[in-house]
Amino acid sequence: MEDEVGLTFPSDYREWLTRYTEVQLDGFLYIIHPGGRPEKSALTQAREMLDPLVFVTEDLDPIWLVGDQGGGAEVNPFPVYPNPGGLYPWGVTDNGDTCLWLTDQDPEKWTVVITDGADWWQFKGSFSDFLVGLLKGLAVCPIFPRRFPGSAHIEEISEEDLNSRAECDL
């Protein structure tokens, strides 16, 4: 997968991929396994998720970066993969939000970015720091509903479920 997309992923995410297929947190946040959908390559899946953001970031100058405690600021748009330091997707929500990394040459320095297409929020920590912080209530993404997460319910989506979804999509 890394060779296909030309990126080296952070070690915490690579470890995640060895343990889980796609995962759903509290019926809202879906963490994608790039190799989990046999009908789509990781590169195709990423491009499909990023295409709407390329359009938004090219048309918006600047974007609205929401602060942790409300408010925010206008900032220059983030670059989008395959541009160096570009955004790369790792998840989605039921509300249509996209969960991304802001990449760096050093994958251990990647940070989390969440957008609903209009507002943007950045968590200056790792993938695992974000997930643990979210579940413990220490990281609060202002783009997500206030009630999320309402529980620590985590459901792994089996390969069988992924395959049956792929058949329905064809």
From TrEMBL:
<dbReference type="InterPro" id="IPR037883">
    <property type="entry name" value="Knr4/Smi1-like_sf"/>
</dbReference>
<dbReference type="Pfam" id="PF14568">
    <property type="entry name" value="SUKH_6"/>
</dbReference>
<protein>
    <submittedName>
        <fullName>SMI1/KNR4 family protein</fullName>
    </submittedName>
</protein>
